[in-house]
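dumping this here so i dont lose it
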């Protein structure tokens, strides 16, 4: 029989079908094994780990939400409130963990129907952000940008956002935005997750309060709360000394931003921005309340519980006497001359503790004559003070052994140094030689006596017509002598913005200015420096640091009573080394200024009338103001054995030696006995 190849093929195919069930069985077996494994795994996940996954789905997150507490108060020396707090109804917003910009925009639009806010600080960028927070607006703008930029697919999210903002601003789309709604949105956007910010922190009307209160459920995160604002029961003049506090609008000061953020402050938190408010910020700010907020995984607030009620800030008690401060300020304003006068400044302090009783000042506008309270001019307005520095020059001369208490006589005479103008004393314009001792030189305020002392300190004895030939370190030696009394150095008072004054050039042609330095007509000093200087004379040679805060008070959490937790103590910054006889000469000379009977006495009748007697030194410095020849009148005074010294300066006066310094000083000293201390 002939072989049929088709039958062979058929037979092979039948063999293949015969083998097919075996393959299926293998595949089915493998599938069965996989299904069993899947069932086992599913059972394991459901039975064994089901509770864990259910807990993960229902997981809660705890976050601490901080609240605001009132700042500490500021009292005067008698316990009167100078800076207090006023509680104000406020509308606040606490941002949830998953609140989107779109949600905040919707809330802002709804809230804007019932709440009007100040839009002064609304920026165009915030208006654009508000416009783009609407998803429909954002998508429409993004399509335009992607179409315009063919490489749009490669643009980053930040680039798309910046281009969108630019498009909105360029095409004036922000003109269709409600400023009020956008401002509310801007304030809401400034809050980070679970932080609270003020939407409106003051001037919330009763109508706004009622309308919002009825609809709080419609405004996620919005609450009716309380804000605290500084108030000044004794007048805003004290605000200059106490300083200012930033508002929610201002937030943290730019120059301290990173430091404060590192200390745990938030961007929009109020903080002391100047003077005592800034210096003592860590005490005044208190500690914020803490509420533990529990949220579910979708951001819904599950519960909240107060963890810490917070503590109001510590309070400051000042050395300032409010009544005395007001009176000194009034005396300066009422007795300030006109003309080119720039102002007047006065500091009264305790020479043994450094506590400042009053620090008043007036700034006068030359063009309008308007007077403005300027107490900080005592620390930041440096002035050429004139002859008030002569006791310090005398002390330096004693230390350098160029004169002694028993041998201090020199000639008051015309000083003629080659290359410099002739110098004479006001009472001896002719320059005829007159013998005077140190006490008389102080009483008459002899310029030429102190020029000769200065030359001796600098290594040269005066000879008429000779060239100036001082030691190379003469200027520094004299300045060191003045500096031991604190002249030319910052006092370290606990208020910011203090200046050390200006020290003139000492090289080349300026070397001749040394002669004027010796009687106070070159370098500049502040009125507070004069007060520390005369304190050093009054207390026997101790350089005392001035301060405004006498103690820190802390409120009890269970009571309205406050307890003292810190008291200021005297801080000695240096000591002037003089023996008793040398001090006696200085004290006697200053006594004669205020109480002497010499024909050329410089104290004036107003000082002579004071009881108890004061010791003083007056000063006059020639200056130029508004293109005119003017004068600074100054004075320092103290009462021996009493805790009071006074320093004063009036720059820009047109009249020479008119006695205004003595007249104002006498009024201030009498006011001290009236308001601060009974006469001994």
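and the seq i came up w/
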């Amino acid at each position: 029989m002939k072989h049929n190849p088709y039958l062979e093929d058929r037979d092979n195919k039948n063999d293949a079908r015969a083998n097919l069930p075996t393959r299926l069985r293998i595949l089915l077996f493998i599938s069965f094994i996989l299904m069993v494994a899947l069932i086992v795994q599913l059972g394991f996940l459901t039975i064994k780990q089901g509770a864990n996954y259910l807990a993960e789905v229902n997981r809660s997150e705890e976050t601490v939400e901080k609240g605001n507490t009132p700042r500490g108060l500021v009292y005067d020396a008698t316990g009167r409130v100078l800076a207090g707090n006023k509680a104000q109804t406020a509308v606040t917003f606490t941002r949830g963990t998953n609140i989107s910009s779109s949600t905040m925009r919707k809330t802002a639009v709804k809230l804007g129907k019932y709440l009007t806010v100040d839009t002064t600080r609304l920026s165009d960028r915030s208006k654009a952000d508000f416009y783009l927070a609407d998803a429909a607006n954002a998508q429409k703008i993004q399509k335009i940008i992607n179409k315009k930029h063919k490489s749009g697919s490669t643009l980053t999210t930040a680039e798309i956002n910046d281009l969108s903002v630019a498009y909105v601003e360029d095409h004036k789309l922000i003109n269709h935005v409600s400023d009020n709604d956008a401002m509310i949105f801007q304030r809401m956007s400034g809050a980070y997750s679970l932080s609270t910010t003020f939407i409106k922190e003051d001037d919330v009307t009763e109508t706004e309060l009622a309308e919002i209160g009825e609809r709080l459920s419609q405004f996620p995160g919005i609450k009716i709360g309380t804000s605290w604002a500084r108030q000044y029961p004794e007048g805003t003049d004290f605000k200059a000394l106490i300083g200012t506090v930033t508002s929610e609008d201002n937030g943290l000061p730019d120059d301290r931003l990173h430091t404060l953020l590192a200390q745990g402050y938030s961007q929009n938190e109020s903080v002391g921005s100047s003077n005592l408010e800034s210096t003592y910020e860590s005490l005044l700010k208190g500690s914020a309340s803490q509420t533990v907020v529990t949220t579910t995984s979708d951001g819904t607030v599950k519960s909240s519980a107060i963890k810490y009620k917070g503590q109001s800030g510590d309070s400051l008690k000042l050395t300032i006497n409010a009544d005395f401060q007001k009176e000194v300020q009034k005396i300066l304003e009422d007795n300030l001359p006109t003309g080119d006068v720039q102002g007047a400044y006065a500091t009264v302090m305790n020479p043994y503790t450094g506590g400042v009783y009053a620090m008043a000042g007036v700034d006068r506008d030359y063009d309008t004559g308007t007077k403005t309270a300027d107490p900080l001019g005592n620390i930041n307005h440096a002035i050429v003070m004139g002859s008030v520095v002569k006791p310090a020059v005398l002390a330096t001369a004693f230390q350098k052994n160029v004169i002694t208490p028993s041998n201090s006589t020199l000639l008051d005479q015309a000083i003629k140094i080659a290359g410099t103008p002739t110098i004479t004393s006001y009472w001896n314009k002719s320059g005829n030689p007159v013998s005077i001792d140190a006490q008389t030189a102080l009483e008459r305020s002899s310029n030429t006596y102190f020029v000769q002392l200065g030359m001796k300190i600098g290594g040269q004895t005066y000879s008429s017509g000779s060239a100036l030939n001082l030691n190379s370190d003469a200027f520094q030696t004299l300045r060191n002598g003045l500096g031991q009394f604190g002249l030319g150095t910052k006092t370290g008072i606990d208020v910011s913005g203090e200046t050390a004054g200006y020290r003139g050039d000492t090289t080349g042609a300026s070397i001749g200015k040394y002669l004027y330095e010796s009687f106070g007509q070159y370098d500049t000093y502040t009125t507070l420096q004069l007060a520390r200087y005369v304190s050093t004379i009054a207390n026997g040679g101790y350089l005392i640091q001035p301060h405004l805060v006498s103690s820190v008070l802390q409120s009890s959490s269970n009571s309205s009573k406050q307890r003292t937790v810190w008291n200021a103590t005297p801080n000695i910054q240096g000591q002037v080394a003089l023996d008793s006889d040398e001090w006696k000469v200085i004290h006697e000379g200053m006594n004669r200024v205020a109480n002497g009977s010499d024909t050329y006495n410089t104290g004036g009748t107003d000082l002579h009338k004071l009881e108890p007697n004061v010791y003083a030194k007056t000063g006059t410095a020639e200056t130029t103001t508004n293109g005119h020849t003017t004068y600074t009148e100054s004075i320092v005074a103290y009462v021996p054995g009493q805790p009071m010294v006074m320093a004063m300066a009036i720059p820009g006066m047109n009249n020479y030696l008119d006695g205004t310094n003595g007249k104002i000083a006498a009024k201030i000293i009498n006011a001290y006995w009236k308001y601060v201390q009974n006469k001994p």
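DSSP finds 23 helices and 20 strands in the chain.
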